[in-house]
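Because showing beats explaining, we let one protein speak, sequence and C-alpha cells together, and leave readers to judge.
___
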Amino acid sequence: MNNIGIADRIARGAIAFTLIYWAMTPTGPTLIAGYAGLYLLATAIIGWCPWYKSFGMKSKKN
C-alpha cells in the first residue's frame, strides 16, 4: 500500500518540520504553511500519498 520511498519520506519529514516551524513564527504564513507541513508530515509517517496514487506515481522501489 505504500507508494513513498525512504528518501522521499525523509525529505518530506524535513520539509514538514521546516514548514511547521515557519508557521509558528509571527511573520510566517501561518495557515498555509501549517497545513502544508501537517500534510507532508502525515504522508511521511504513513508512507502513502494520495496525489501519487491519483497520478499513478511512486517513489518506492519494489
In short: The mean pLDDT is 92.
